[in-house]
């Protein structure tokens, strides 16, 4: 008879320390077998040199190396989660599976499926809140309805927040002896899962006191490398949200702190309104008659619109997997308003390219740009891509960095006239929502 064990299932929490589910697993009755599943259903949608897959793979190897120093490791699998668990349960005497909550529609469906399988096997599934401070319906109005405007949500979030309770750090190092003693657990190479190493690297995050202190004054200027690059690390859980909030509070930086709250705002919106992945939050905006010109969409994707701020942003995205947040707003507004192309097309392209792609934030921000979402920019707010340069890149450092042919005869002419495109957008939106 095999020895009884518990499984800890790593997902969006690729770190060993300050990981609540992992901490709870290590305090259980049985030794813990850590696992990670490269979900084939997710992977089949991605390009074979996807930088995010390379990043996950490399983080897992680092975690394996650390655990091997404690005579353990992480078992890495590839396939559909339910099929993988069938295999695991045939090889090990599994008592409980422990993991952290995930809130996206696909993850909810996946977890329901594996939970049903576990029930058949008399295995308990325990999940914990780890990637946010407040989740689901923990911050709602007095009548139980969700907040759909950020500012009141943020105020209640802050009033409910208690540093002693919500910023407890869950240290795991001294409990690693409770892992299964097996340092040669199954591993996979990138090629085993059908991928190759990406040429794009996810940069380390920068949450130093200097970056946080200067965040408010410098964050809108794309030529400055003044943002934290925290996005991918929060997305894949290589850092703990508790430690990042702690840093924001230590530096007394409200702007930095509030950006972290925005992330939770969008996550609870997606949880309450999962249909907004595909449909406008404000239903009347689904009546907008998009032009959806494929040729223009291609020019936008390639950064060949003739509007330098838009083109620099798209080229930065295509070459590095990143785009400055200020530029993201300009680029998204241009697609939806100047070109009258459906925000869902832009959202899907960002999902394919962005290293820090997070479904809730991506959908939320694209709907904001289109004027169709929660707390959205009104439809008549249309960014002027030229005056944005004057405000945020007046020396044209950012533009010149990303557009090699800028100021030459080979740089494309403007594909639309700003004034005409603006008037066309206003008329189209007005017709749709009146």
Walk me through the structure.
This protein is an alpha/beta fold. It has three domains: 1-130, HUPs (Rossmann fold, 3-Layer(aba) Sandwich); 132-168 and 207-272, Serine Threonine Protein Phosphatase 5, Tetratricopeptide repeat (Alpha Horseshoe), CATH 1.25.40.80; 276-433, DNA Cyclobutane Dipyrimidine Photolyase, subunit A, domain 3. Helix content is 47%, strand content 8%. The chain has 19 helices and five strands. The chain has a five-stranded parallel beta sheet, sandwiched between helices. Helix 4 packs parallel to helix 5 (105-120), helix 13 crosses helix 14 (325-338) and helix 15 packs antiparallel against helix 16 (359-370). It is globular, with a radius of gyration of 23 Å. 39% of the residues are buried. The mean pLDDT is 95.
What is the second-level CATH architecture of the largest domain?
Orthogonal Bundle
Helical percent range? 40-55%
Order of SSEs:
EHEHHEHEHEHHHHHHHHHHHHHH
| Average of the residue pLDDT scores | 95
- CATH topology of the largest domain, what is it called? DNA Cyclobutane Dipyrimidine Photolyase, subunit A, domain 3
Question: What's the helix and strand layout?
Answer:
Blueprint: E1 4-10, H1 20-26, E2 32-39, H2 40-43, H3 51-68, E3 75-79, H4 81-91, E4 93-100, H5 105-120, E5 124-128, H6 150-160, H7 163-166, H8 209-218, H9 231-236, H10 241-250, H11 254-272, H12 294-302, H13 308-320, H14 325-338, H15 343-353, H16 359-370, H17 385-392, H18 397-402, H19 418-433
Parallel strand pairs: 1-2, 1-4, 2-3, 4-5
Helix pairs in contact: 4-5, 6-11, 10-11, 11-16, 13-14, 14-16, 15-16
């Amino acid at each position: 008879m095999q020895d009884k064990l518990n499984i800890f299932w790593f997902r969006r929490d690729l770190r060993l320390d300050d990981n609540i589910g992992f901490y709870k697993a290590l305090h259980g009755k049985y030794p813990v077998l850590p696992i990670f599943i490269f979900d084939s259903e997710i992977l089949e949608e991605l390009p074979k040199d996807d930088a995010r897959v390379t990043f996950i793979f490399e983080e897992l190897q680092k975690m394996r190396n650390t655990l091997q120093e404690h005579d353990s490791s992480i078992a890495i699998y590839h396939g559909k989660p339910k099929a993988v668990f069938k295999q695991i349960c045939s090889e090990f005497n599994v008592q409980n599976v422990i993991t952290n909550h995930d809130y996206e529609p696909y993850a909810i469906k996946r977890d329901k499926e594996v939970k049903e399988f576990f029930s058949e096997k008399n295995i308990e599934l325990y999940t914990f809140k780890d990637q946010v401070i407040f989740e689901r319906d923990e911050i709602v109005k007095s009548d139980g309805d969700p907040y759909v405007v950020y500012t009141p949500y943020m105020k209640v979030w802050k009033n409910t927040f208690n540093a002693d309770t919500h910023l407890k750090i869950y240290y795991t190092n001294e409990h690693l002896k409770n892992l299964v003693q097996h340092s040669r657990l199954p591993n996979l190479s990138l090629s085993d899962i059908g991928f190759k190493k990406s040429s794009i690297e996810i940069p380390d995050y920068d949450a130093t006191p200097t970056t946080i202190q200067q965040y408010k004054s410098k964050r809108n200027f794309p030529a400055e490398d003044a943002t934290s690059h925290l996005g991918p690390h929060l997305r894949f859980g290589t850092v703990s949200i508790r430690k990042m909030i702690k840093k924001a509070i230590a530096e007394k930086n409200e702007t930095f702190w509030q950006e972290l709250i925005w992330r939770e705002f969008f996550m609870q919106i997606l949880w309450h309104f999962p249909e907004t992945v595909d449909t406008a939050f404000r239903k009347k905006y689904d009546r907008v008659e998009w032009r959806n010109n494929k040729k223009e969409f291609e020019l936008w994707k390639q950064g060949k619109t003739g509007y330098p701020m838009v083109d620099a942003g798209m080229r930065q995205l295509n070459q590095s997997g990143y785009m400055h947040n200020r530029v993201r707003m300009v680029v998204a507004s241009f697609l939806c308003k100047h070109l009258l192309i459906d925000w869902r097309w832009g959202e899907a392209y960002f999902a394919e390219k962005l290293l820090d792609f997070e479904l809730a934030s991506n959908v939320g921000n694209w709907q904001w740009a289109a004027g169709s979402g929660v707390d959205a920019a009104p439809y008549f707010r249309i960014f002027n891509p030229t005056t944005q340069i004057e405000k945020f890149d007046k020396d044209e450092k950012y533009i010149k960095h990303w557009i090699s042919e800028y100021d030459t005869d080979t740089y494309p002419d403007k594909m639309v006239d700003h004034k005409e495109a603006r008037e066309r957008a206003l008329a189209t939106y007005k017709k749709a929502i009146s």
